[in-house]
Amino acid sequence: MTIPATVRLDPAAEALAPEMRHWRHHLHAHPETAFEEHETAAFVAAKLRDFGLEVATGLGRTGVVGTLKGRRPGNRAIALRADMDALHIQETNAFAHRSVNPGRMHACGHDGHTTMLLGAAKILAEDPDFAGTLHVIFQPAEENEGGAREMIADGLFERFPVEGVYGMHNWPGLPLGHIALRPGPMMGSYDIFEVAIHGKGSHAAMPHMGNDPVTAAGHLLTALQTIPGRSLHPLDSAVVSPTWIFGGDTWNVIPSDVTLRGTVRAFKESVQDVVEARLRTLAEHTAASFGCSASVRYERRYPATVNSPAETALCAGVAAALVGEENIDHDPMPSMGAEDFAFMLKERPGCYIWLGNGPAEGGCLLHNPAYDFNDANLAIGASYWVALAKALLPAEAAQ
């Protein structure tokens, strides 16, 4: 795919594009899932050392941090972050760089994210014309397992203190050469729930002899959908999605137990509070109305990803200089998808952007077995990181 003429690539990123493509294809072919990114981390660490950065490994188990000092003195420090992990998906692509690890695939573009940040690190190391310190964070286990939380718990920001932290994700459906960002919520929180309904099993022909948890579960499924529509302010947003239901194993037996599982998404902690409380109440009272009982497990996995205003405004300016103001979406509709970069944004101000990846169809869809990152984005993403680092750590601000 051709890079639009409106994009003003960093010349060094443009020259590095073929090498970055080679790195990206290697990473795509060797995907590793949450906290198993040993080969990926070793690849990243080796590259960073070759570029001349100081390297720390093993943060949050398999995370890597590279540190680069600007040639000009300065007290400021910032961090740029990329995720490294893959998904448990069997790839269906037939190209040469398809996954060689069965049941594992880079179906979300983290191979591209890692490559773009590696490219920026190489470019900045060759010409560190900035004042202060840059940390590049390569994070494990973004998918489901909270690698950002683990790195923070392992002392990430104590060992590498920064005033701000920045991230990006490729975004199918947003045209190549476009960037979307907004202050405030960018992506939703990620909660999970499990409701176990306990009744009294019986012969299916004699339901009056038991307490039917299947019927209770059916009523609870519909009752849960009243939470967004009847328990929240109309301008607040939440998604309550039951995704799994199990009970019984034959036609003529009403089981004693039925289990429901699902996910909740929101943009505000206050909304999460309401949803959790109402879900517990509905589960317990609905079960009781059928002579059953309910036990509820509710976990808050990821908070919402919330950009801070000042940092978002600065990133918008950098993005506009790169792709053109007409190609910036300053107010995209937030996504209920979740991102554990949210944990870093709760610790430090910063901004998370979406980088246009092209049409959201066929193999371009995230978490699709035919997905492949758009290599045309490698030079764009690396150019953005280089420009952002220099904007945040300007040489003229040296003290």
Structure description:
It comes from Azospirillum lipoferum (strain 4B). By secondary structure, the protein is α/β, with parallel strands linked by helices. The protein folds into two domains: 270 residues, 3-Layer(aba) Sandwich (Aminopeptidase); 113 residues, Alpha-Beta Plaits. The protein contains eleven helices and 17 strands. The strands form four sheets. An eight-stranded mixed beta sheet has the order 1-2-4-3-5-17-6-15, sandwiched between helices. A four-stranded antiparallel beta sheet has the order 10-12-8-13. Strands 14-7-16 form a three-stranded mixed beta sheet. Helix 9 packs across helix 11. The two termini are 44 Å apart.
Q: How many DSSP-defined strands?
A: 17
Major sheet attributes? 8 strands, mixed
Return the string of H and E elements: HHEEEHEHHEEEEEHHEEEHEEHEEHEH
Helix tally? 11
Indicate the low-confidence ranges by residue numbers: none
| Class inferred from helices and paired strands | alpha/beta
Layout of secondary structure:
Layout lengths: L10 H19 L8 H14 L2 E6 L3 E7 L2 E12 L26 H17 L4 E9 L7 H7 L2 H4 L4 E8 L7 E2 L3 E5 L1 E9 L3 E2 L9 H12 L1 H6 L6 E9 L6 E2 L2 E10 L2 H21 L3 E10 L2 E3 L1 H15 L4 E2 L5 E4 L2 H7 L2 E7 L20 H16 L7
Parallel strand pairs: 3-4, 3-5, 5-17, 6-15, 7-16
Antiparallel strand pairs: 1-2, 2-4, 6-17, 7-14, 8-12, 8-13, 9-11, 10-12
Helix pairs in contact: 1-3, 1-11, 2-3, 3-11, 6-8, 9-11
Brief characterization of the structure:
The chain is an alpha/beta fold. It folds into two domains: 11-186 and 304-397, Aminopeptidase (3-Layer(aba) Sandwich); 190-302, 2-Layer Sandwich (Alpha-Beta Plaits), CATH 3.30.70.360.
